[in-house]
Write a structure and sequence with these properties.
Elements (H helix, E strand, L loop, with lengths): L7 H13 L7 H7 L4 H13 L22 E2 L5 E2 L9 H7 L33 E8 L3 E6 L5 E4 L3 E4 L5 H12 L5 H4 L2 E7 L4 E8 L5 E6 L4 H7 L7 E10 L2 E6 L1 H7 L13 E6 L3 E6 L5 E4 L6 H7 L11 E7 L4 E7 L13 E4 L9 E6 L5 E4 L6 H7 L12 E6 L5 E6 L1 H6 L11 E4 L10 E6 L5 E4 L6 H7 L12 E5 L15 E5 L18 E4 L10 E6 L5 E4 L7 H7 L13 E5 L4 H17 L3 H12 L2 E5 L2 H6 L14 E4 L5 E6 L6 E3 L6 H7 L13 E3 L5 E3 L1 E3 L2 E3 L8 E4 L10 H25 L1
Parallel strand pairs: 8-12, 13-17, 18-22, 23-27, 28-32, 33-39
Antiparallel strand pairs: 1-2, 3-4, 3-7, 5-6, 8-9, 10-11, 10-12, 13-14, 15-16, 15-17, 18-19, 20-21, 20-22, 23-24, 25-26, 25-27, 28-29, 30-31, 30-32, 33-34, 35-36, 35-39, 37-38
């Protein structure tokens, strides 16, 4: 791929492909390597992308792709599971349920309420079919049994028989088992043998969850599971489910009512009883719900029991925040026909009875201060201060530790809010206030501004340019001299002239005079190399100092000569008048095999700043006409090489040193002298363009015939030759014949192509024919009259 051959549209398509592959601008190098694009072309590609301002489109593409559905349930390093549904937005129902106080218990993955099976068996736990009893006999006799409770409620002890334990607590089961074992182990009665009964693996129970739960149904749980465990596995109360009225129904009768708020508010799990097989957990619909918003610590939707007040709800919400406005709480209530707003005073909160659907808004205190005044500007401690009784501006300045030295004593301003809170300004004399001649009283929210003299004027600067190490602008200070500014600018450069140092000064504070045309004051003087006080020229604000280059200071300029000379290489120009012939003598002259007629001179495009100014303006106009950035890029590359071919006649230079052919040398000039050339190259509209051997006796047309002759599109009269030294000669017209230029070794023959000739359209042909016919008719008529 060659980038310069790509159009702008192809570049845009390439950038679009990079965007689809999440390739950023910084990753183009590695992307190009995968596409087998050479490194040299990658640099050009980046330049083209910048020229079209497409690099911004490739920023930020190195972000990881969004997790898709097929990437669901993947593990990450910290052990958590990321699922596709984790990154999907919540539905409206989920969002509404998330606002309900307590719902986070059933969406928190770190809280499961799973029963701890490693704890001692609760004393009130009753055995049933499926439980395992571990009977350990130790002492004078040693034996251990792991026995399952049968569906009929028995455990079968070896050599004892079945023992009924269904419905017994662990203590009751221990007493009964010990009594049965004493019949075969006599040491139990004598106290030499002991019996321990414990619970092994526990049974599973079936519990039915009904009512307003997220996922009602029948669940299999461990026999130690509680109400909270059952609620968690079912997803908890639904959108309309009560968090405070959860019943456990056993054998058709309610045995307890569980209130989740007891746990959320007080950490109390007293009513969180252990469930039994075939228990029914019923979540009743809520009766009263209200919503708290604004300045409470836990804004949410809360459930209210009968007899509870608004204060109880606020307590569940954690109380007020520090910036809450407690005097009035606004309530939005739904009555029988429409909505209404209720104002609840602070003393009514403890007795106010909430109604279902109420929304309470606790506002924040105003962002105002009852006794604040402010001071800013040229004081030592600006800021906010308390307004005291009969406080004046002088008192406030004293609290701010006084004014700074650069304070403007003439005038200061108080920005005040009037009674209707529209702004107003009061000015006073700072000098009179500080001296006690004037007393200015302060009001709440007053802002006193003390201005600095430095802020009330334009920044004073001085400028230095020319032959200093760090030219630019510098802050003006009093008693600044030229030598001081030179030191601030890093000193003089090696090329600096100590003569004719100029200072340009603004005309400031001068009375108007129509006849005065002066626009600046210019002083000129000399300085010393060590910057000792010779001129002692004091600077003023906005002065501009110019240090010029010494007229005798010249940096080394080098030229080079390559090819068939005795001593090729780089040479330093000795004089501004040094010519090509001088350089040839220094290089030892030509070698015997040198071809002097093919010598060329390569010279920089921009020799000096005056050369570049005109060319740059022309190129800018040319760039604006080009439509495709590829063309602009190619032209810029050609110009950036900054070398152009300059044809020279080395034979004339060597024969006549100092003549018009003998050019002065410029820095960066390169002279190249080839070996004797023996070929001629043919290009353009000939049948077989090729390179052929040069023969002195063969002419221009002979070379063309040897290459197959002219094609039908050849423009013969415009054929031209480019000689080895860069000189160009074209075909001339001599009477009715073409006079072709002479062919020399190393020449290149070019035959251009004819321009495209457009044929006549049908209408144009008819018009031309009609015109000829009309002209013929006129001629015939005239001839008839003459006769």
């Amino acid at each position: 791929m060659r980038v310069e051959n790509l159009s702008d549209e192809e570049i845009r398509q390439l950038v679009a492909e990079m965007k689809r592959n999440n390739v950023s601008f910084d990753q183009i190098d590695s992307y190009a390597q995968q596409k087998s694009i050479p490194a040299s072309e990658v640099v050009k590609l980046k330049d083209r992308i910048r020229m079209l301002n497409l690099d911004k489109e490739l920023t930020g593409n190195d972000k990881p792709p969004v997790v898709k559905q097929e990437q669901a349930d993947r593990s990450v390093n910290d052990g958590t599971i990321i699922s596709a549904k984790d990154i999907q937005p919540m539905t409206e129902e989920e969002r509404k349920r998330a606002k309900i106080f307590g719902s986070e218990l059933f969406s928190n993955k770190n809280l499961t309420f799973e029963p701890n099976l490693r704890l001692p068996t609760p004393p009130n736990y009753r055995l049933a079919a499926g439980d395992e009893l571990v009977i350990d006999v130790y002492g004078y006799s040693e034996v251990q049994h792991n026995l399952k409770v049968s569906p009929e409620g028995h455990v079968r002890i070896p050599y004892v028989g079945p023992v009924y334990v269904n419905g017994l607590t662990m203590e009751e089961a221990r007493i009964r088992v010990t009594k049965q074992l004493s019949t075969i182990y006599g040491g139990i009665k004598s106290g030499n043998t002991f019996v321990q009964v414990s619970l092994g693996t526990i049974r599973s129970i079936r519990v039915l969850l009904i009512g307003e739960v997220m996922r009602p149904g029948s669940y299999t749980l461990p026999s130690l599971a509680t109400i909270a465990n059952a609620l968690y596995v079912s997803g908890g109360p639904g959108e309309n489910g009560s968090f405070r009225d959860i019943q456990v129904i056993r054998n058709g009768q309610p045995v307890t009512t569980f209130d989740l708020y007891d746990f959320l508010r007080d950490g109390d799990l007293t009513n969180n009883i252990v469930l039994q097989d075939q228990d029914i957990v019923k979540v009743n619909p809520y009766k009263t719900r209200v919503e708290l918003t604004g300045e409470v610590k836990r804004p949410a939707i809360f459930e209210v029991k009968e007899g509870e007040t608004l204060q109880d709800v606020i307590n569940v919400a954690g109380g007020y925040t520090d910036i809450s406005f407690k005097d009035v709480i606004r309530a939005y209530r739904i009555n029988n026909r429409e909505r209404e707003v209720v104002n609840i005073a602070a003393e009514e909160v403890a007795t106010f009875q909430p109604s279902s659907g109420d929304k309470y808004f606790i506002d924040a205190v105003l962002n105002r201060f009852t006794n604040r005044v402010m001071i800013s500007g040229a004081v030592f401690h600006p800021g906010e201060y308390a307004l005291e009784s009969n406080m004046t501006v002088a008192d406030l300045i004293k609290k701010a530790d006084g004014v700074k030295e650069e304070a403007s004593l003439g005038r200061a301003i108080i920005f005040r809010l009037k009674e209707d809170y529209t702004p107003a300004g009061i000015s006073f004399s700072l000098e009179d206030v500080l001296s006690g001649k004037q007393s200015v009283a302060l009001s709440r929210e007053d802002s006193v501004v003390i201005y600095s003299k430095l802020e009330l004027r334009e920044d004073y600067q001085v400028k230095i340019s020319g032959q200093v190490n760090t030219p630019g602008y510098f802050a003006y200070i009093d008693s600044l001299h030229v030598e001081d500014l030179i030191l601030m600018a890093g000193g003089l450069r090696d090329a600096a002239s100590l003569k004719r140092v100029e200072v340009a000064r603004r005309i400031r504070g001068k009375d108007y005079n129509p006849s005065d045309s002066a626009v600046a004051i210019v002083a000129q003087f000399d300085i010393t190399a060590d910057l000792s006080p010779l001129a002692r020229f004091a600077l003023q604000p906005f002065d501009e100092v110019i240090i010029r280059k010494s007229p005798t200071y010249v940096e080394q300029a080098t030229v080079s000569i390559d090819g068939e000379v005795v001593y090729p290489g780089a040479y330093t120009i000795n004089s501004k008048r040094e010519r090509i012939s001088d350089l040839m003598r220094r290089a030892g002259g030509l070698r015997p095999e040198a071809y002097s007629e093919g010598a060329v001179l390569l010279r920089k495009t921009f020799v000096n700043s005056s050369d570049s100014a005109l060319l740059e303006s022309k190129l800018q106009v040319y760039y604006n006409k080009l439509q495709d950035s590829a063309d602009i890029y190619n032209v810029q590359n050609a110009v950036s090489r900054k070398e152009q071919l300059l044809g020279i006649n080395l034979d004339e230079i060597m024969k006549h040193p100092g003549s018009k052919f003998d050019l002065y040398l410029e820095e960066g000039d390169v002279i190249r002298i080839p070996k004797k050339l023996q070929t001629v190259q043919l290009f353009g509209e000939i049948y077989f363009p090729k390179k052929v051997r040069y023969d002195k006796g063969i002419r221009f047309r002979d070379y063309i015939r040897g290459a197959g002759g002219f094609t039908s599109n050849a423009l013969k009269r415009r054929g031209y030759i480019v000689y080895a030294n860069g000189e160009v000669k074209s075909t001339r017209k001599l009477l009715f014949f073409n006079s072709y230029p002479k062919v020399k070794p190393g020449a290149e023959i070019y035959i251009p192509k004819k321009g495209e000739q457009k044929g006549l359209s049908g209408q144009e042909a008819v018009a031309v024919t009609t015109g000829i016919a009309s002209l013929a008719l006129i001629i015939v008529t005239i001839l008839d009259r003459i006769r």
